[in-house]
Amino acid sequence: AKSEEKKPEEPPKPPEPESEESDLEFDNEGVIEPDKDEPQDMGDENTEVSDEMMDQANEKKMEAINALGEGKLEEAINLFTEAIKLNPHLAILYAKRASVFVKMQKPNAAIRDCDRAIQINPDSAQTYKWRGKAHRLLGHWEEAARDLALACKLDYDEDASTMLKEVQPRAQKIAEHRRKYERKREEKEIRERMERVKKAREEHEKAQREEEARRQAGGGAQFGGFPGGFPGGMPGGMPGMGAMPGLNEILSDPEVLAAMQDPEVMAAFQDVAQNPANVSKYQNNPKVMNLIGKLSAKFGTQP
Asked: How many CB atoms lie within 10 A of CB 67?
């Protein structure tokens, strides 16, 4: 006989990257460290604004715009903040201050202002434009692409469109990368589920085999307990019975097998096996006589 050839072992699979973006690289030119300043004064949204306060807020806004035009960014921030305190319900004030924060490269502060402006007016293109620019500074490519695309949809802006063309390919690359890892995760989950099903099936089949072996061993032990070694002949023989058939043939009858597992029937059967004349004691016991009748039928004789 030929010796079995050993199959070559498969090389181990390389471990999958733990992070979705672990093998995703970008040119991060223009991305900066996030600003960690204390949140700016957002005004009191419960303030009741009078006509006079509105006028004062507009004056502060114009002063802030002039300061911005002169490149005085910090002064512009302070003036916009004064305007916001006077009228915290005007979305444009937060959007304007956000634009200055972007110029100062403070994207987190700009995003806070834009979020507040969107709460007040969710249809302002300028707000989404500046929040998109802030996200771009932080390297948040998908968020930047969403905001800039919405800004252009609400009110087309050449500046926002130019930046959208820059960030969109990176955002798409991230989305494609994520879809790839989602597919990998789904495939891994399916493999693991199939392995669990296979293992459960194997364990179930093993348990069935063990139960069948126990059942057969139990049946054989009962027959083996007869004097003289059943099957193979019993001393004196059962009344009217000749040679015993094979054990498998006897066990093929479920009624015989069930009777053999009844302690009362088995005790009577052993009694008769030791002394066939004792069968007369069980003439009125239908369970015992039914078994004797079944076995007699197996031998082709009558009890």
From this structure: 19
